[in-house]
Amino acid sequence: MPEKLWRSLDEWHTVSQPDEAEFHESPIGIGGGPDRRGFLKAAGFSFGAAMLAGCGRTVQKIVPNLVQPEGFTPGRPVYYASTCGACSAGCGTLVKVRDGRPIKLEGNPDHPVSHGGLCAVGQASILGLYDSLRVTQPAIGGKPAAWTQADALVAARLDEVRRGGGALRLLTPTVHSPSEAAWIRRFLEGFRNSRHVEYDALSASAILDAHQATHGARILPRYRFDKADVIVSIDADFLGSWISPVEFARGYAVSRDPGATRYAWHAQVEPRMSLSGTKADRRVIISPAETTPFVHALAEAVRTGGSNRPEIAELASHLRAARGRGLVVSGSQDLDTQVAVNRINETLGNYGATIETSRASRQRRGDDRALETLLEELNAGRVDMLIVAGANPVFDLPGGDAVSKARFLAVHAERLDETAAKAHVISAASHTLESWGDAEPVEGAASITQPCIRPLFQTRSWLETLAAWSGHAGPALDLLREHWRQSIFPKTKTDLAFDRFWEKALQDGFVEYEPPARAKSAAPQRETAPPQQSKPPEGFEVVLYAKAALLDGRHAYNPWLQEVPDPVTKIAWDNYASLAPAAASKLGVASGDVVRLECAGQTLELPAVVQPGQHESTVAVALGYGSRLSARFAKAGPEWIEGRPTLNEKGLVGANAAPLLALERGALRYSRAGASLARTGKRVDLACTQEHHTLTVPERLRPAAGGARPIVRETTLAASREARPKDAPVPELWPPDHPYPVHHWAMVVDLNACTGCTACIVACQVENNIPVVGKDEMRRKREMHWMRIDRYYSGEPDNPRVAHQPMFCQQCDHAPCETVCPVLATSHSDEGLNQQTYNRCVGTRYCANNCPYKVRRFNWFEYARDDRTANLVLNPDVTVRSRGTMEKCTFCVQRIQDAKIEAKRTGRPVRDGDVQTACQQTCPAKAIAFGDLNDSQSEVSRLMANVRRYRVLEEINVRPGVGYLKIVRPDSAAGGEKENG
Amino acid sequence: MKSRIVTIVLAVGLGISCVLLASRIGQFHLPGNQQGYSPAQPIAYSHRLHAGEMQIPCIYCHYAAQTSRHAGVPPANLCMNCHRDVTSSLGALHAEDELATHEKRKPRQVVSPELQKLYDALALGPNLQPDPAKQLRPIEWNRIHSLPSFVYFDHRAHVRVGVACQQCHGPVETMERVSQFSDLSMGWCVNCHRQATRDGIGGARVNASTDCSTCHF
Q1: Domain formed by A540-688, architecture
Q2: What's the CATH architecture for A205-361?
Q3: Any residues with CB less than 8 A from the CB of A629 and at least 6 apart, and which?
Q4: Which chain A residues are Cβ-neighbours of B77 within 8 angstroms?
Q5: Of chain B's two ends, which shows fewer C-beta atoms within 10 Å, N or C?
Q6: Among B7, B8, B17, B62, which would you mutate to test the A interface (most chain A Cβ atoms within 10 Å of its Cβ)?
Q7: How many CB pairs under 8 A join A and B?
Q8: Residue A29 has pLDDT above 50, yes or no
Q9: Does the domain made of A699-724+742-973 have the CATH classification 3.90.550.10?
Q10: CB-CB under 8 Å, B216 with A827
Q11: Residue (of A743, A785, A744) closest to A889 by Cα position
């Protein structure tokens, strides 16, 4: 034993008593009682034993229906055909109802407008039903009231207006519901001075006005992208947010199928990188001020065949070569420009071919001139009573505050938005899924909206409120049925009796009929003077646009839409000032630097984002942000010690850019010149998923000889029509131990069809109970989306080419994640699925680290599930994962199991198409195919044999179960096979 | 002194917990295992009488087992298919008949107290007509067979291939009060799946998968 050292006498005293233990065993020190360890042992045992003995069962209750509704089986979903009410496009939906509650919207494959697709907004709109912060009952002067009180007050005021001959105005967004339109007419009939004004926050008023000028009818024609061989879009983001994106994306995909005999050429002329621009074969960047001269020059070139500007000559030659098969669309709000666009289409004979006026669209009916007049009247105090239904002018119009100058303001609203907050009376609106209604998005296609649940709160549909205020209160079903009996039923010229007709319409969700022919009017030949060459405006031009997910901000309450990254910038939870790289470097700002944007007396502070492919003199800002409905997201995401605020200093998500809009010369204008930008020196951290989960190897780790990894591949149209060469055998280290005896599930994603619209991401989120993590967690790369869409640029930053690549678990045969899991929580199934077993997972995250595709998501927290109303949207067929669990795309295994069991139950084999994953079902472009590779006739087998099919990171030989089809670039631009990494 | 108090408290605590534990040691299960669980139900419904003596097929009441994941507890209106006419046991009816003859009066309607609960739930008055004075009151049954929320069992698949209800639920037709027969553990499930794949069910070949994602998703 070494000699003990001491440094003082006291110490010496201690070390010299060697038999005393270092720690005193007994707290009391005197023998007799239990020592510390003994005490803990005994107490611990007693405590544990008592706990174990007291272990009880949690008693669960089963409460069956007393009287079971017919055709209703617990645990079995029922689908109802209905119409989406999330925007005015009027897509057909199938509502999946489980045990009495709607849990998912799917596209109605037979619907004449949407053909089975549904966008991100439509998918997310179901959460609006279970929003506990909705207006739950009518209110008078901000105080809750009963319906009888609210109706009595409104009736009294209406009576006053009627007797006094006062001015009654009704302000709504586009009304394409035939029954609502009829009831609005009926409602306004008894008043001497009444008017109904329709407006769209994302207006297409100039197109309607232009058709008034050139065709003698104020209509929005129906654009048939599915029939077009040459598509020229001048600042119309028809794949993102313009009029009817689902319908257009479907048509666009039809026209651009390399397997078909024709393949459309698409040119996009725009100031900022829009979603449509990312898909274009030719992208021309012009500023908004150059749009009008450009269109006139194009019109001239189309007529004469030549132009001194090469890009215009190119467009014109394409258009002239495809007479009657071309389509020129424009999102411009300038009447002369739209008239010129009509002239181009007229010259080329596109009317009647790719542009239908006989079955015109009713998806935008807003009249900005009438709106301008209404605002003037309001400001002059000449409106005695204003009723606003389903619109939020205070938020989305410049000078929309004027509504509060009406002597009496009644608002029919679902949420307490900026306009409802100013109302004297609020009529609490039901969600679409709670209401009877109808829609006629396209003339001759009437679509039914049916309720799938009783109103959760004391709310009423607009139809019921209208009828009540007209003095004919009644249930909406009766009102609707009566209208259909009188107006729609005769038009269909069907042989069925009305009851049978009505049942069939309910079952299908829509009816089609020949719309009455529009009287051919001698179109006043309006000649437009070519615009004077004005000198380019000073400073920046502001371009205001709508994001594909948030649109005009009416869904700003929806966390799913806030969290889905923008398809182009990949930024969520914010709007920002997009700048061209050159403009940003001139200003000396980088992404995240806050800039002050001054324009027309308005000031906005926004973070800058450097966006390739934008016009140098423009700054693009998204509308729909800064809504008071977004104030609720203060606690979006987990609360923890390092948590940072998820809202900006105003307590909102983003800033409202609507005050920058200009309502002038009869149109709501989305661009404005004369803006100035200045640095503020502040910085914010944007939630940008652009570089999260990257597949590329960092520069410093890249093998010298390796070069780029083939992630996105491109091909030419000619090459895509050849036969697929036989795949070379790949050397194999692994034994062939995955025989897949029954099924072999696989997926193929057509990158050429994918528009990057993000509908699949939201569909996946709804289907698979994926939590919302909030802005701060997103900044930490902790978003939970099982599926992401990677956006890659190639070429020069001033006008790059873009590729969208949906990326999710690739269900590898030789999955690297499976070999590293220490608890076998991730393993391979006999059907080619890489299974994730949540209850086994201990959260080592080895699998995520070893995943070459970076598609695994870890639950860092117990994400908020404390809103009991919102929880009603959860899919009962999918486990809600808890903290510490890894999760990832399962190929919607719950749907696979259900289809298999259902096939077994009905005694037939599983057929191709029985299993549709959530992403596949919703995809407007039908870019995703899913099925069984063991079935050689299945669509997925056919696509796997397509010449364009490749696999991502094929060289590492993990044998993914997901194939991708190469992007097709026009033969001249791509110059052969390309591999981008 | 102090140490003695501590010792006594500990000894008493130890004693109590041992007694508590000993009384329950016989029915000890791993957490989550509810084998033998047999709670009293709001209505003392007898499976022995209905499924055993009367030989009503299981699927008559639990019809959802054929078409849905859940077998379900039947809605009260399904009970009324029979109990609109049958309001009491035959014995009680005979007794009333005899009593009535004895007392020289018309026999009264006999309603068993348990069935009265059913009629009360459906707000039915005398003569089984809806009674506006009563309120509909759904019956809250105590759930016996309960799987964790991360397990998805589907009755459809099992009923279709001919797995007898009794194989998992035991001889319910002999049970006055239903109790959980099997332990419903994963090992128990997997054993049966393996066996069924090896031996088939009723002579037919089946593919009872043991993939994780068969039940966990």
Answers
A1: Beta Barrel (2.40)
A2: 3-Layer(aba) Sandwich (3.40)
A3: A415, A417, A553, A556, A557
A4: 65-68
A5: N
A6: B17
A7: 170
A8: no
A9: no
A10: no
A11: A785
